[in-house]
Amino acid sequence: MKISVSFTFLLLVSAVPTSDSVDSAPDIYAELREITASLAQLKADMTLQTQGQAGLKAEVDTLKQQLKVRQVAFSAALLSEGQSVTIGPYPTDTPLIFKNVRTNIGNAYNPTTGIFTAPVRGAYHFEWWLAVNVDIARAAGAVLFKNSEKIFMSWGQHGVSNGATLLLEVGDNVFMRLVGNTVVIDNNDHGTTFSGFMLFPM
Questions:
Q1: Which is higher by pLDDT, 93 or 50?
Q2: Signal sequence span per UniProt (predicted)?
Q3: Architecture of the domain spanning 72-201
């Protein structure tokens, strides 16, 4: 009887886990916490990546828009149709509207008003050429305006020309006016022209 009780006691003692075996058993809750933390970090990384892609797309769109804005150039002749036209003389300065548009990249020049409007702040260059009729005893003369400011004038008995480089702000207007008591002509040869383009943004 004593032998069987002792044997049963030994079995019970051996069945009880020791502290070492408990410590070495896997902690399922700790592993779950680690997995949860890893998933949270992965989600955060994916969010940052998505935000980075959105920011990169916005930068690309901005660069495309800037490149598009930089593409500004126009060239137009005075005569839109017909064989010949003579403008002037008028007692005061009169707007010159160059209606025959050959180039208008960026659509900054308005052939209805004859006004160029700067789409972006930058340096712009303008040139104009005036044809005259030598049989008419009058000179040709024109003034380049920036808003209400007179910039440069060209005047002469024969064909005249001039040019200017201007720093323009967004919305600044540039246009030509015929000087009072002068005349200008144009025909199918298109000798009277107004042109401009942006050198670079600033």
A1: 93
A2: 1-15
A3: Sandwich (2.60)
